[in-house]
């Protein structure tokens, strides 16, 4: 039974996995039967932790941010970032017990012989982030740095660091970071002026300032720099791996100047760094740094989308719980028509995000296996979800705070923390304008929209009668619109509108396809797809009136019912 005192419901201790049966059904779609059976206990355990210990740790870590220490007590240089024990415990779960930064790169996590598919990692992160967001940044950067290093690095360099980057032993683990942003070069990467010079021994050394570096005391960081004399623009940039310490154990020649005082992600340190001749290793070919870094950025963008989708689910789950257990004007909130309409809108948007990130994980697996068309589909899905899912999270988190009311505005609950953190997704790894323009670039230069359209047409055929009437036509119109806008420089101001149309159409098709593949499904995802079509793709007269239909009411009733704690344990 929920803890309710004076009409204030508290969902503390609710298992985030068991209270979300739709997630279980989706994982049966996206995982093989063998992987699903093996991983089910891990999903259940993460769900329990997210609603219990992880949530408690995250609240404490948020109120006890990291501090920068410059010297030790006898005055010797000893620069380090100190984190609260609650944050360290969160690290233990994410990096250690669950191996979230390791499972995509080696076998052995959870006793499995080989690497786990991307959806396994992203589903666990989806649950983890419902408690803690800040740590997910170092987690995804460690994961994506390892991927980029393995993909482009010299084999000897990979061998030197791979075991530490993928270790689940916290005393051995090397965490990763990405140092790219500069004061004169935020979104304009081509303006980077950090210089790389070779010393007398042939070692590369980096000089310059990096303005926004999350996880600044990471053991390894990927850094973009301009080799001396290489020229201007992105084509002259190279990618370097920067170790925190040199082989003899001495600190490398860079300093953390200060830590940022941020609006959100307070548990995790971000700072400014001065590179003062720091030794670094060239990764890949000179002059290809931006292209190679793009791989890491894209993985971080996908991770941002997963985190935003997870926070939307947390927000919707809290709102549904409150509406079921709080009363006003002699009724439960869930029986009030305006509240039902607000909750349904939140639910649709959150489910769009979930389907988009899970399906993108499926496409990523195929692309990494050598599927050329999947690689093109991934190229456009990643900025699409980074653009729309991350922006939607801000709105959904704000609406959830409103459902809780005044208690949502105080820091004893997590609503304010989630809302602050939700704003980050649409800024890091490219602001909304930048990633919307990237959707247009992928359309114009790489044929990515054409590949996505073909992919979605195939999903629509597989969905069969689960496809809402008119959705195929809406998809075609959205793609035609994006194509026209992407190829006309005079229509750049329409890029965000066109990208939103493609996102909405794609998410609706994917949800219909998921419904067709579900065992024992009730048509809920097809109904969600229909709501996306009706409310986000088709023209409507705002003065025509009309409310939600019986089918919509039935959909919301099941969502309320699903929020009851599930009695049986995961098998």
Helices, strands, pairings?
Blueprint: E1 3-5, E2 8-10, H1 21-30, H2 33-51, H3 53-63, E3 67-71, E4 77-82, H4 85-97, H5 118-128, H6 136-152, H7 155-165, E5 176-179, E6 195-198, E7 204-214, E8 220-227, E9 238-243, E10 254-259, E11 270-283, H8 289-325, E12 327-328, E13 331-332, H9 337-368, H10 372-404, H11 415-422, H12 432-446, H13 448-463, H14 471-486, H15 495-517, H16 524-537, H17 550-562
Parallel strand pairs: 5-8, 6-8
Antiparallel strand pairs: 1-2, 3-4, 6-7, 7-11, 8-9, 9-11, 10-11, 12-13
Helix pairs in contact: 2-5, 3-4, 5-8, 5-9, 6-7, 6-8, 8-9, 8-10, 9-10, 9-15, 9-16, 10-11, 10-12, 10-13, 10-15, 12-14, 13-14, 13-15, 14-15, 15-16
Task: Explain this structure.
With 571 residues, the protein is α+β, with helices and mostly antiparallel strands. Among the domains are: 176-288, Butyryl-CoA Dehydrogenase, subunit A, domain 2, CATH 2.40.110; 432-541, no CATH class. Helices cover 52% and strands 13% of the residues. It contains 17 helices and 13 strands. The strands form 4 sheets. The protein has a 5-stranded mixed barrel. Strands 1-2 form a two-stranded antiparallel ribbon. A two-stranded antiparallel ribbon has the order 3-4. A hairpin with a 2-residue loop joins strand 12 (327-328) and strand 13. Helix 5 runs antiparallel to helix 9 (337-368), helix 9 (337-368) packs across helix 15 (495-517) and helix 10 crosses helix 15. The protein is globular and about 75 Å long. Mean pLDDT is 94; it is low at 566-571.
């Amino acid at each position: 039974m929920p803890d309710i005192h004076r009409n204030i419901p508290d969902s503390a201790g609710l298992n985030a996995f068991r209270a979300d049966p739709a997630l279980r059904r989706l994982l049966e779609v996206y995982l093989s039967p063998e992987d699903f059976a093996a991983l089910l206990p891990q999903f259940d355990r993460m769900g329990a932790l997210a609603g219990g210990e992880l949530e408690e740790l995250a609240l404490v870590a948020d109120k006890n941010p990291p501090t920068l220490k410059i010297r030790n007590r006898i005055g010797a240089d000893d620069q380090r970032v100190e984190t609260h024990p609650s944050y360290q415990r969160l690290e233990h779960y994410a990096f250690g017990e669950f191996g979230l930064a390791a499972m995509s790169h080696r076998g052995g996590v959870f006793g499995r012989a080989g690497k786990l598919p991307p959806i396994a990692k992203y589903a666990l992160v989806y649950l983890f982030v419902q408690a803690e967001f800040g740590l997910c940044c170092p987690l995804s950067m460690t994961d994506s740095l390892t991927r980029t290093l393995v993909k482009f690095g010299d084999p000897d360099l990979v061998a030197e660091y791979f075991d530490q980057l993928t270790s689940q032993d916290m005393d051995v683990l090397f965490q990763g970071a990405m140092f790219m942003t500069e004061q004169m070069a935020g979104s304009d990467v081509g303006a980077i002026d950090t210089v790389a010079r070779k010393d007398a021994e042939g070692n590369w050394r980096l000089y310059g300032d990096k303005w926004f570096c999350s996880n600044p005391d990471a053991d390894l960081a990927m850094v973009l720099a301009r080799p001396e004399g290489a020229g201007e623009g992105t084509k002259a940039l190279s990618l370097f791996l920067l170790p925190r310490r040199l082989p003899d154990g001495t600190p490398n020649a860079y300093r953390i100047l200060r830590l940022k005082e941020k609006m959100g992600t307070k548990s995790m340190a971000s700072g400014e760094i001065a590179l003062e001749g720091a030794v670094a290793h060239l990764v890949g070919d000179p002059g290809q740094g931006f292209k190679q870094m793009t791989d890491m950025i894209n993985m971080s963008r996908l991770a941002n989308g997963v985190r935003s989708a997870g926070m939307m689910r947390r927000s919707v789950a809290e709102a549904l719980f409150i509406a079921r257990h709080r009363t006003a004007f002699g009724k439960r909130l869930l029986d009030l028509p305006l509240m039902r309409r607000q909750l349904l809108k939140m639910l649709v948007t959150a489910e769009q995000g979930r389907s988009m990130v899970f399906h993108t994980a499926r496409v990523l697996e195929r692309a990494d296996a050598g599927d050329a068309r999947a690689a093109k589909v991934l190229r456009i899905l990643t900025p699409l979800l980074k653009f729309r899912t991350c922006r939607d999270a801000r709105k959904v988190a704000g609406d959830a705070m409103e459902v809780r009311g005044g208690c949502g505005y105080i820091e004893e609950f997590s609503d304010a923390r989630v809302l602050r953190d939700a704003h980050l997704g649409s800024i890091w790894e490219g602001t909304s304008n930048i990633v919307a323009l990237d959707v247009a670039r992928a359309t114009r230069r790489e044929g990515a929209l054409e590949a996505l359209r073909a992919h979605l047409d195939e999903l629509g055929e597989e969905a069969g009668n689960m496809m809402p009437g008119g959705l195929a036509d809406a998809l075609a119109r959205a793609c035609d619109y994006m194509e026209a806008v992407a190829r006309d420089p005079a229509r750049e101001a329409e890029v965000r509108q066109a990208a939103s149309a493609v996102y909405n159409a794609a998410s609706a098709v994917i949800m219909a396809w998921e419904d067709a593949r579900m065992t024992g499904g009730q048509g809920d995802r097809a109904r969600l797809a229909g709501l996306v079509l009706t409310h986000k793709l088709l023209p409507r007269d705002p003065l025509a009136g009309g409310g939600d239909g019986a089918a919509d009411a039935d959909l919301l009733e099941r969502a309320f019912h699903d929020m009851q704690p599930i009695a049986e344990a995961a098998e």
